[in-house]
Amino acid sequence: MASVAQQAIAAAGSGTAGIHVSFDMDACDPAIAPGVGTSVRGGLGFREAHLLMEMIAGSGLLTSLDLVEVNPILDVQNTTATLAMDLALSALGQKIL
Q1: Distances (CA, A) of 92 to 31, 39, 50
Q2: Mean of the pLDDT values across residues 51-72?
Q3: 15: which residues sit within 8 A by CB, 6+ positions away?
Q4: What b/e string do you get for 85-97 counting C-beta neighbours within 10 Å, with b at 16 or more?
């Protein structure tokens, strides 16, 4: 995950003033994000999703961020909404460990 994320951040940030990140919560495994429109087993785990966001924060290239596909009707005790909030915090520089 780290290698691919590093390559993607480098490619997206090359020759630009920064990057916009649109994180689709559908990319996360339903075990950690049950409240999405199209859940698919085998998605990103908790640590993988946070690693990606922490790497984005560490790059210093983030100019804007959106987290999409949180469906409160399908969510279980705000699990997905809380994860989305925590991922935003990681993208802004907060460390989970």
Answers
A1: 24, 26, 11
A2: 97
A3: none
A4: ebbbebbeeeeee
